[in-house]
Amino acid sequence: MSIKIMGTGSALPELVVTNKELEQMMDTTDEWITSRTGIRKRHIAVTETTTLMAVKASEIAMKKAGIEPEEIDLIIVGTVSGDKCFPSTACQIQEALLAKNAVAFDINAACAGFLFGLTIADAYFQSGRAQTALIVGAETLSKMVDWKDRSTCVLFGDGAGAAVVRKTDTGMLHIVQGSDGTRGHVLACDNRPVNTPFTRRLFTKEFFARASFAGESFPGAACTREFSGDNLSAPDYLKMDGQEVFRFAVRTVPKAICQALEKAGILPDEIQYFFLHQANIRIIEAVAKKLGQPMEKFPTNLQKCGNISAASVPILLDHVNREEKLKRGDKIVMAGFGAGLTWGAAVIIW
Ligand code: COA
Fold first, then answer.
1. Hey, whose CA ends up nearest to atom 44 of ligand 1?
2. In sequence order, what are the beta bridge partners of 164?
3. CA of residue 187 to ligand 1 center, whole Å
4. How open is the CA angle 326-330-336, to the nearest 5 degrees?
5. What tens digit of pLDDT does each residue of 12-31 get?
6. Is 127 in the pocket of ligand 1 (CB under 6 A)?
7. Is the CB of 37 within 6 Å of ligand 1?
8. Angle, to 10 degrees, between the axis of helix 113-126 and the axis of helix 312-322?
């Protein structure tokens, strides 16, 4: 038993922001951004929301797959930037699509979200719990970045990608996933800290400085930044140690791809396309080199879209699919990596 991709879709915000425009807003240059990352522009949401883009991408994917809403029995959305804490983006999509027979939920695996979604769908298919799934990656990262931090805000963009997948006898050959929570701090974004009348009374900075549990420092101590006023409910922005993330990606991604290929009994040469998370062209080049594969096998859209976290792989897949570059029977690899740290790689027959 396995999974097959039946249709793909994507949606991007209307506004395109170029590196040149960013030059006018902050101390950066088109040359710096392009040479370090490959990114030239990105789509930024103004009126669009994570859910609206996710619904649009899903509708296109369903149409391409020739699937009716009632046929979908599983909706999984990878996102770190849903519009609401609850209901989940997946449940909002279910409502919009009238996919009344689906079980719907979000997952937070950051930029590996789509790959983790595929893995979960595969497990549901294998256990007989579902037949047809809608897997979505949707993000509005522009609201999570600090637009005064030039080292991060130039990297990200907004958008959504979706794929309808079905249980079949052939399709996914192997998938690997991994996580390393010990390195979570290298790419992180705090949520709202606990902020109640009780915390204001009890949880002073001194409390956190003294607090320890079984010799470990209290995890909440990291959230002590402003425990003195009423501005505590303001969420924090994304923070990243770019060089650490870079090192993690170039070490982990080729390894995960090789593991997936080995388990599938396939050589890299047999792969038509490698769809990698679109974070940085230099990461993609390093992976291609380690796998001994030409860059032509690595489609990219980061030049136009930037890094769209969980949406990046399904958007890229849809862009290539729309250009009719994929033929049934082609063997492809998809790989995602990001905050968590998390990573996943899948070998699939298109
Ligand atoms: N414009 C101009 N200068 C910038 C800048 C910008 N947008 N952002 C940072 N700089 C400066 C830094 O301040 C630093 O200046 P200094 O040398 O005077 O201190 C200099 O550029 C080099 O910064 P550094 O962080 O060492 O650059 P880098 O070569 O590591 O490139 C990244 C930074 C973020 C592009 C790179 O580390 C990267 O791509 N990492 C992976 C990030 C990623 O993919 N994250 C998402 C994973 S899902």
1. 279
2. 7, 134
3. 13
4. 80
5. 999 999 999 999 999 999 99
6. no
7. yes
8. 80
